[in-house]
Amino acid sequence: MPEDRIWTSALATAAFLKQQKPGGSAFVLGEAGILTALHDAGYVMTETNPDYVVVGETRNYSFDAITKAIRLINNGARFISTNPDATGPSPDGVLPATGAINALITKVTGKEPYIVGKPNPMMFRSAMNKIGAHSHNTGMIGDRMDTDIVAGMEAGLHTVLVMTGIADQAEIEKFPFRPVEVLGSVAELLD
User: Model-level pTM greater than 0.90?
Assistant: First the structure.
């Protein structure tokens, strides 16, 4: 699949912020994906009076950066997050993910983030608009029933659950809905 046909929560977040406040500024807890997307959208990264605090996926959170984010939000920066996933997969078991950091910041500030990525249907609309696609020929590939598959289903997309992340058969059985397809990994899509 060509790279320009893939739409991530980082790209959706950058597009949303560019629409909300062109040329704005952000303090970011995240890695290269969100930083690059925001930079490409014309955003300035700053620790001084940013318009937004943006929390994205990273394995390098620091107590100092989280404290800075909390103080900036308390001083008026708007709280944005790329996704609500509390956990992520690793070979040794689950890891805390973006949603866990969101919860920590919310507990201290009393402010909930606006989640731009899945399961927000805006992410799907912006992706389909970008590539000129329609729901009848667009798919959602993900590893979580609670965000990926439910969001894709509610958006009317072909849903594919890959078993290389959080979900297993027991997880699938917890939900009253099902993905259209279940694959061992994304690699099976290339066959």
Answer: no
